[in-house]
């Protein structure tokens, strides 16, 4: 009886540990990817950085950091539309973050200077940083 | 007995120190975690800056010689044909940009044979537009220049070591500061509409320190190189503004 209880206890502990570890492992993977992508971005390997952040977004679609960083990478490669979309998503997910808003605002300034009639013009009017 | 007293004191001190050190440790760990969670990395990215003129429309230019401003003081010794040199520096700068085509210096000289280049040119936009049509370009670039110098005595304060006093003492030296200024006014005239689409002045200066002897020589000596260098700087800014280019700008990556 005692032996059975011990084995049940051990299996329960193992199961709980595994269940608990899974998100932690994912989280670590995401932060590792992010860190690696930032290093790639610092070395101006923007395609590599985009690939990593896209993987992060695939794992965590609501990760505002990844969307923001993805926006920076897109902007560095001149993909302004994708950058705007990524920044919009980041600011929508974390409206209080000043860095996301700053990046988004600077990108918008360039889009406006270039005079591109972008489809997001109406959306931009209601963008969170308007109240900034 | 004495040993027991010491051990008691140590125990008391240890019990007092423990919560403090534990608190410091907890605060340190908490600050480290909070700090790490909000790390922001600044990266600079290339950002395309558009031209301040319509590049698709104004793609071919004729650069006419720059004329000397009539407001130049009489004692200035200006090199001859400097206006043509300024124009040729600008031609070279614009020809390096892939968006622009510029009429060559030889072609301009050949087509302008018989024309009198004077300051009243700049007021006669119609005539300049006609010249532009003659050159078969969309826009004409011209302007005027003014070269001034300003000389005044200055005093430089420093320190020197006095052997007699065995310490540093205040010392000063008088010198002549000669400052050169070049004011370049640049106009772009639309040949089709006969309108001025760009009219801006660029002022550049550089200073030299002279002793009395070198100052006298500088007054008599040639100033072409200074003038060329100043016009190069002013024209570089103009070229940068009218041509699309890349600039670096900061963005923030969040870890």
Oligomer: heterodimer
Stated plainly, the CATH topology of the domain at 50-147 and 181-207 and 223-249 in chain B is called Rossmann fold
- Mass-distribution shape of chain A: elongated
Classify the beta-strand content of chain B into a percent band.
35-45%
- What is the residue-averaged pLDDT of chain B? 83
Low-confidence stretches of chain A: 120-132
Strand percentage of chain A: under 5%
The CATH superfamily of chain A bears the name Tetratricopeptide repeat domain
Rg of chain A (CA only): 21 Å
Q: Give the helices and strands of chain A as they follow along the chain.
A: HHHHHH
Radius of gyration of chain B: 33 Å
What is the CATH class name of chain A?
A: Mainly Alpha
**Measured distance between first and last alpha carbons of chain A:** 66 Å
Percent of residues in helices of chain B: 25-40%
Structure in words:
The complex is a heterodimer of chains A (132) and B (255). With 132 residues, chain A is an all-alpha fold. Chain A contains 6 helices and no strands. Chain A has a single domain (2-131), classed as Tetratricopeptide repeat domain (Serine Threonine Protein Phosphatase 5, Tetratricopeptide repeat, Alpha Horseshoe), CATH 1.25.40.10. Chain A is 79% helix and 0% strand. In chain A, helix 4 (80-93) packs antiparallel against helix 5. With 255 residues, chain B is of the alpha/beta class. Chain B has a domain at 50-147 and 181-207 and 223-249: Rossmann fold, CATH 3.40.50. Helices cover 38% and strands 36% of the residues of chain B. The interface between A and B is medium-sized, with 23 and 15 residues.
């Amino acid at each position: 009886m005692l032996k059975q209880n011990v084995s049940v206890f051990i299996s329960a502990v193992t199961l709980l540990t595994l269940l608990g570890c899974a998100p932690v492992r994912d989280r670590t993977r995401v932060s590792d990817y992010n860190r690696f992508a930032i290093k790639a971005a610092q070395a101006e390997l923007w395609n590599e950085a985009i690939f990593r952040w896209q993987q992060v977004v695939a794992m965590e679609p609501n990760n505002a950091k990844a969307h923001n960083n993805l926006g920076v990478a897109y902007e560095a490669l001149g993909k302004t539309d994708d950058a705007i979309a990524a920044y919009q998503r980041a600011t929508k997910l974390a409206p209080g973050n000043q860095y996301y808003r700053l990046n988004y605002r600077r990108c918008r300034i360039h889009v406006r200077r270039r005079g591109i009639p972008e489809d997001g013009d109406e959306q931009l009017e209601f963008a969170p940083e308007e109240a900034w | 007995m004495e040993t027991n007293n010491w051990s008691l004191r140590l125990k008391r001190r240890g019990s007092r120190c423990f919560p403090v050190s534990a608190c410091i440790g907890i605060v340190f760990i908490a600050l480290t975690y909070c700090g790490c969670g909000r790390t922001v990395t600044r990266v600079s990215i290339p950002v395309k800056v558009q031209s301040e003129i319509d590049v698709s429309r104004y793609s071919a230019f004729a650069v006419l010689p720059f004329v000397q401003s009539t407001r130049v003081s009489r004692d200035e010794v200006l090199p001859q044909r400097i206006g043509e040199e300024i124009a040729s520096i600008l031609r070279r700068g614009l020809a390096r940009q892939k968006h622009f085509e510029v009429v060559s210096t030889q072609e301009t000289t050949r087509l302008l044979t018989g024309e009198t280049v004077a300051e009243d040119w700049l007021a006669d936009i119609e005539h300049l537009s006609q010249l532009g049509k003659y050159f078969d370009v969309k826009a004409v670039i011209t302007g005027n220049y003014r070269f001034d110098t300003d000389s005044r005595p200055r005093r430089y304060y420093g320190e020197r070591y006095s052997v007699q006093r065995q310490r540093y003492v205040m010392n000063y030296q008088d010198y002549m500061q000669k400052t050169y200024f070049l004011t370049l006014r640049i106009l772009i005239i639309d040949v089709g509409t006969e309108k001025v689409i760009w009219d801006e002045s660029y002022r550049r200066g550089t200073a030299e320190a002279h002793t009395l002897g070198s100052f006298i020589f500088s007054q008599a000596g040639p100033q072409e190189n200074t003038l060329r260098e100043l016009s190069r700087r002013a024209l570089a800014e103009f070229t940068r503004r009218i041509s699309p280019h890349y600039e670096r700008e900061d963005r923030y990556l969040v870890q």
